[in-house]
Amino acid sequence: MSFLKKLKEKFSASAETEEVSDKYKSGLEKTRESFSTKLNDLVARYRKVDEEFFEDLEEILISADVGVNTVMDLVEELEMEAKRQNIKDARDLKEVISEKLVEIYTGGEDTFKTQAPLNIQPDDLSVFLFVGVNGVGKTTSIGKLAYQLKQEGKKVVLVAGDTFRAGAIEQLSAWGERVGVDVIKHGEGSDPAAVIYDGIQAAKSRKADVLLCDTAGRLQNKVNLMNELSKVKRVIEREIPNAPHDVLLVLDATTGQNALSQAKTFSEATDVSGIVLTKLDGTAKGGIVLAIRKQLDIPVKFVGLGEKMTDLEAFDPNAFVYGLFADMLTDDEM
Ligand SMILES: Nc1nc2c(ncn2[C@@H]2O[C@H](COP(=O)(O)OP(=O)(O)O)[C@@H](O)[C@H]2O)c(=O)[nH]1
Ligand SMILES: [Mg+2]
Q1: Which parts of the chain are coiled coil (predicted)?
Q2: Among 60, 80, 160, 269, which residue has the fewest nearby CB atoms (within 10 Å)?
């Protein structure tokens, strides 16, 4: 059975899996449209797989922000695979492309292995720290995740560690109200480490399962920001051994390669254990997911696929690739 057909089977297995793939499909609409239009054009132009075909394919992938090095490796593997399978017709290559994209993400270990889950502590308080520059979607992602965790029956507390602006504290409070979870906050301009400390005490005494910590992304300069994050992290570590259980770096997919340089900066200052890639719905360059995987070796744990409360999904490379290729399945393959 072809790889895309296997994906189709996997995601039509239940109402739940179907819902996941539908969310990816709609969230990746811009990327899919641009990518599949270009890919279909390419296939129509060439029919036969030759060197020029692969050169044009390289350009398409680079324009989707997959990242130059990743594209080079990918196309080299595709050429080899085409030879091995004796693929001459360009149409037959899209299967191989979809499979290779998933392989890039999973490292080829098990293409059907899914996402890197949150490091939830089953019997203890789990603390998750959100970091990232201003405007990437930290507060929004916290709100969305709080909603999800609450749906799962967990008791969630939020702490407003972005004390830089009053607006940021209000925004988190509004999410707390919308979702129905407590928010611990101090006033504008107060010490972020102090409010985080209070958040931990409140979460402990209220017997919460999860504490989600918001932080500021904009301070006078990079050194200040990084020092502040280190301090916040030290406070958490001191209060709860092994915490924070995840440091989630939030990156905005629409900023493309810039997101990669932010990731490098934050990784130097703090141990980032996972990435939340937001606003995939707002870009035609969703290939950035693959560039992040290849260049950073930090798993993408969640993707933001829209602005609604329900628009945060655990990242699944299979659902991602299926979302990109779903409407390229021809009728006889359905
Ligand atoms: N379309 C879209 N917008 C998002 C997503 N995540 C966040 N946003 C928007 O990005 C803007 C900045 O988000 P915010 O959470 O305030 O960023 P923060 O400064 O990092 O806390 C807001 O207008 C959010 O609604 C997403 O996945 N998709
Ligand atoms: Mg914020």
Answers
A1: none
A2: 80
Task: Establish whether 274 is an annotated binding residue.
Answer: no
Q: How far is the CA of 47 from the centre of ligand 1 (A)?
A: 42
Residues 246 and 136 in one domain: yes
How many whole angstroms from its chain centre is CA 247?
Answer: 13
Q: CB within 6 Å of ligand 1 — which residues? A: 132, 134-140, 217, 250, 278-279, 281-282, 304-307, 311
pLDDT of residue 331: 46
- State the ligand closest to the CA atom of 141: 1
Atom 25 in ligand 1: which residue has the minimum CA distance? 307
Strand order in the sheet with 312-314: 182-184, 156-161, 210-215, 126-131, 246-252, 274-278, 300-304, 312-314
Residue 38 is assigned to a ligand binding site:
no
Say yes or no: 162 and 103 in one domain.
Answer: no
pLDDT at site 314: 93
247, 168: one domain: yes
Quick one: 84 and 188 in the same domain? no
- Ligand 1 atom index nearest CA of 278: 27
Residue 121 resides in a domain: no
**CA–CA gap between residue 27 and residue 21 (Å, rounded):** 10
119 occurs within a structural domain: no
For residue 262, being part of any structural domain is answered with yes
Do both 271 and 182 map to the same domain?
Answer: yes
Extract the tokens encoding 244.
């924070």
Q: Domain range spanning residue 214?
A: 126-315
The pick from 29, 140, 212, 311 for probing ligand 1's pocket by mutation, whose C-beta has the most ligand atoms within 8 angstroms, reads: 140
Ligand 1 atom closest to the CA of 312, numbered from 1: 27
pLDDT score for 59: 92
